[in-house]
Q: What sequence folds into this?
């Protein structure tokens, strides 16, 4: 059985060639995301029963291991079943990173026909930087607008007071 360990966001994900199609050993993904394997095992078996398979591989200790595997093409579908708001706070960012990476790879493939993780990561960082810069400009502009409104109100009140004084001088 051909398999490949792929580094995905700092975790080793096992991809297995099964019937000339890449399958993902789901325990490696679930563990990498910090999720509970028992709960995900049941969910995967129920929701993907027509495509999930158990594949036996030889582990590093030369023993056979049975692994629950999902076709790589179904990984995105499974990943979207996980709600980041329903996991422990310390796991939330990891879940979001995995989902965003899958989103970006799928988008890259659909728009260019090729999914390149390095390009996607670079583009993601570039866009996040632009977003932070835009937020900073918006924040500065928002503060300046608030300051302008305050100054305008104060000036209008001072002008109204002066105008009233001027009116009293003219009638006296």
A:
């Amino acid at each position: 059985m051909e398999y490949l360990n792929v580094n995905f966001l700092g975790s080793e994900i096992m991809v297995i060639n099964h019937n000339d199609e890449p399958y993902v050993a789901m325990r490696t993904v679930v563990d990498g995301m910090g999720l509970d394997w028992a709960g995900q095992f049941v969910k995967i078996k129920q929701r993907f029963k027509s495509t999930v398979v158990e594949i036996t591989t030889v582990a590093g200790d030369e023993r056979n291991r049975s692994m629950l595997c999902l076709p790589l093409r179904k990984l995105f579908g499974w990943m979207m079943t996980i709600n980041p708001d329903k996991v422990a706070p310390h796991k939330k960012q990891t879940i979001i990173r995995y989902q965003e990476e899958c989103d970006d790879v799928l988008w890259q493939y659909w728009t260019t026909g090729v999914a390149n993780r390095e390009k996607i990561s670079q583009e993601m960082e570039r866009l996040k930087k632009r977003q932070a810069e835009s937020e900073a400009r918006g924040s500065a502009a928002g503060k300046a607008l608030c300051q302008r409104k305050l100054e305008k109100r104060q000036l209008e009140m001072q002008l109204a007071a002066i105008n009233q004084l001027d009116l009293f001088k003219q009638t006296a």
Remarks:
- The mean pLDDT is 80.
- The first helix runs from residue 26 to 33.
- Strands lie at 3-8, 11-18, 21-25, 53-58, 64-71.
- Helices lie at 26-33, 37-47, 72-79, 89-112, 117-171.
